[in-house]
Amino acid sequence: MYVGNTDRDAAGSRFALFDASSSARRESLIIAVHRVECLKCGCVRQVKIPFASPRRSCTKSFERCALELSRHMTIQDVAHYLSVSWDTIKDIQARYLHRRFDKPKLSKLKRIAIDEIY
Fold first, then answer.
1. Phi-psi map region of 55: left, alpha, beta (phi>0 left; psi -120 to 50 alpha)
2. In 3D, which of 92, 73, 91 has the Cα closest to residue 81?
3. Please, which residues have CB within 8 angstroms of residue 93's CB and are 6 or more apart in sequence?
4. pLDDT of residue 8
5. What's the start-to-end Cα distance of the chain, in Å?
6. What's the pTM value of the predicted model, to 2 decimals?
7. Residues in domain Transposase IS204/IS1001/IS1096/IS1165 helix-turn-helix (predicted)?
């Protein structure tokens, strides 16, 4: 099944997203995403979906499931178990690491030490 934009009409678009069921297997959801128009400026936007990240082909629960499995399995094993590509799992991991470790909070930092200087 193709994941992404599957159909478009005047009301919006339909998308297929990967989701993790209670058995931790991949399922595909086909959802309608409505478009709304601003009455002031005429800008057209799609309504945000609370259970999926923007421009992603899987739900947040699928990402959590893949990350939890990644703690105990290799990327290839997780991809095979969830029936997705290796690149999908690697992308989920990269986004998680970027969110988690990108910018450290320095507001409570009191001292910094330098171990070696050449």
1. left
2. 73
3. 66, 67, 70, 75
4. 46
5. 56
6. 0.61
7. 47-96
77, two tokens: 């094993």
d(CA 104, CA 1): 40
Hey, where are the domains in the chain? Answer: 4-101
**Residue 98 has what pLDDT?**
93
Q: Using one digit for the tens of pLDDT, what is the confidence trace for 78-108?
A: 999 888 899 999 999 999 999 888 887 888 8
Q: What burial letters (b/e) apply to 62-80, b meaning 16+ CB within 10 Å? A: bbebbeebbeeeebeebbe
- Residue 56 C-alpha from the chain's centroid: 5
Nearest to 78 by CA among 89, 62, 94, 93: 89
Residue in 67, 79, 82 with CA at minimum distance from that of residue 24: 82
